[in-house]
Write a structure and sequence with these properties.
CATH architecture: 3-Layer(aba) Sandwich
Strand order of the largest sheet: 2-5-4-3-6-7-1-8
CATH topology: Rossmann fold
Distance between the termini: 3 Å
CATH class: Alpha Beta
Shape: globular
Number of domains: 1
Number of strands: 10
Length: 301
């Protein structure tokens, strides 16, 4: 069972200009909203951004590169989460001329936008170059959103490459739960928003993959006499609300949606997670994998 938290908040955003007749462009990222100090152990890698390291951002970027090639066309689960998130735009009477879409399910958000929010300029950003390239190529084939000026940038949510007070809308669908500094990423989003801007995000909730978590724990205890982390820590509903408040948002709201997906075997579940780029990226992960013990007929998350 997967619990997706939809987090939304009014505050502020940023602008990236591109003329309507220009071809789609991919920008490399610089950091405009945050300190550009990088990890002292590796000053050449701009993606290892947070002092508190829970996730291996280098490895996660590689997983996103792989997911760009494995991604399912029109994934039912991803599309459902993206559709529910974008429905919030229909509840708002104001327009959002300039919008930023962060990581996660970029392709689904762009494809399902369908004119909602009266968006005129859309910035698509991901840490993975291959994912950005995939979204760019897919956008060139889409005639439904041809009136939206779209730019593509490679950037990190932990070092948001957007100017302050320049956006009307920030959307993140299933991406922010992989950041080492989630409050910091939300603060950067708030700083990038214009006054009365809107922040919309969906992250995986704390009960996600509960059945898989239990199966992995029991199996590893039987075989090795101990356990290692296999599923990342995820926020509970109370945590999500506190994060919005801590980031300085006003009028925060949190919804919880539960989705049950059934698979013929655990291998189908694992392949789906790989195609979504949602496999283990913990720094303390065990390199040895134990998938052969998952022989149950159905695994739900």
């Amino acid at each position: 069972m997967m619990r997706a938290f939809s987090q939304y908040q009014r505050s502020s955003l940023s602008l990236w200009r591109r003329t309507r007749n220009e071809p789609y462009r991919i920008y490399s990222s610089g950091s405009f909203c945050t300190d550009t100090t990088t990890n002292t152990k590796n000053n050449t890698d701009e993606f290892q951004s947070s002092k508190l390291q829970i996730f291996d951002r280098h490895f996660k970027r590689k997983q996103r590169d792989r997911a760009a090639w494995l991604m399912r066309p029109k994934d039912c689960f991803v599309d459902t989460v993206a559709e529910n998130l974008l429905d919030r735009l229909e509840d708002c009477k104001k327009a959002f001329p300039t919008a930023l879409c962060l990581g996660g399910s970029l392709e689904a958000i762009r494809r399902l936008l369908r004119g909602r929010g009266a968006i005129e300029k859309l910035i698509m950003m991901d840490t993975s170059y291959d994912m950005v390239k995939f979204c760019k190529e897919d956008a060139e084939k889409d005639v439904h959103n041809e009136n939206i000026e779209t730019s593509f940038i490679v950037g990190d949510e932990e070092f948001l490459p957007i100017k302050e007070s320049s956006l009307d809308l920030v959307i993140s669908c299933l991406g922010l739960h992989w950041t080492n500094d989630l409050p910091g990423a939300m603060i950067q989003c708030r700083l990038a928003l214009k006054p009365d801007g809107l922040f919309l995000a969906a992250i995986l909730g704390g009960e996600t993959l509960k059945e898989l978590r239990i199966a992995c724990t029991v199996a590893q205890m039987e075989r090795e006499g101990g356990i290692s982390p296999r599923i990342s820590p995820l926020a509970q509903v109370r945590d999500a609300g506190n994060l919005l408040t801590r980031a300085g948002f006003t009028l925060p709201g949190v919804d919880v949606d539960e989705y049950v997906v059934k698979y013929p075997s655990a291998m189908e579940l694992i392949e789906h997670l790989r195609a979504m780029g949602e496999t283990n990226a913990l720094l303390q992960r065990n390199a040895v994998r134990f998938f052969n013990f998952l022989n149950t007929e159905h695994v739900c998350f």
